[in-house]
Amino acid sequence: KFARMSLGGVHDEAEIRGHRRTYVGAMPGRLVQALRKAGTSNPVIQLDEIDKLGADHRGDPSSALLEVLDPEQNHAFVDHYLDVPLDLSQVIFLATANRLDTIPAPLRDRMEVMQLSGYSEEEKIRIARKHLLPKQLKASGLGRRKIEIDDEALRHIVRGYTREAGLRNFERELANIGRKLARRVVEGARGPFHIGVEEVRAYLGPERVTANDSLRDDAEATPGLVAGLAWTPTGGEVMYIEATRMAGEGLRLTGQLGDVMKESAQIALSYVRSHADSWDLPEDLFSKQEIHIHLPAGAVPKDGPSAGVALTTALVSLLTGIPVRGDVAMTGEITLRGRVLSVGGVEEKVMAAHRAGMTTIILPRRNERDLDELPASIREQVEFVLVDDVADVLATSLVAQSAQRKAA
To answer: Cys-Cys link to 12, which of 58, 107, 216, 331 (CB 3.0-4.6 A)?
Structure first.
């Protein structure tokens, strides 16, 4: 048996514990109502949007849930309306949330956290064919008409009109196409209808999501341009890093960077300066030239340590004049000794690199375990280079060193 409780916007503790019977219109709490609806003492109860609970003068619902979710206490949960102990120990609670930081720490400590990553392109297309398309065509009154949509058209919708980890916007765009087709039917068109990439543009208009393809085309011709990988709430993203130098002194950072990313840039510069002899860089180089690092999409805040290897590679490429391969993307945190540390969000980052056409991805060796979570189709099409040190990153990414490595 299954029951659902939506907790978004709940700010009254009585919603959980129930009202005392002395009040007019008193009712049991939502838990008792869910058990009554399920008709059993051991159902699965979904606590939806648990990160959006509120609190006011009527109490704190998140504090009431402490007893509900604690297996040491919930065998004798007391609802104020029933006023007798209620055994919740046999109930399986599934809570959903978009963010963990808004859930109080004591409540989060009573739950086992499972992170669910976004869908890959192929998974979105399969879900669209099996579920979303039939649903939206039926809603538009087109269920019995012959309609064919190419996989490339669906892929174009995913890439050009949506940027999300889930499927909400994708389904909205399919519904939009369904309404446009329904209008054509009303105007006299009989079908069958075939929808390719050009028809998608005609129905949905110009693409609303653009990729940094122009930067990738310039990578192998421009020293100091590197493709890093970033995690965002809507999935992974390829994040290009640009570095240039001019007369002056010091390091300049732009692109709305957070404190952690600024520190990663400082660590990268310190590592390059301490190993200047390895690349035959003059000793007075850093006192005569100012280095400017910029991350495009300047209106988007960026933070985190996982751009460390990309920042270091960008500096080495700039100062040595050796460009970085255009088909290589990388992620990883660095230390002052040049060690590469593990990062999070590997699955989303790899999928973003694959969508961008990258054929080689550099990852920390400690993230090797995360590769098992990737779809087999991506593992077959992408070469993964696992590294422990910045020297391994440079040997793979720099054009000249990569060529020497392959020849050897």
So the answer is: 58
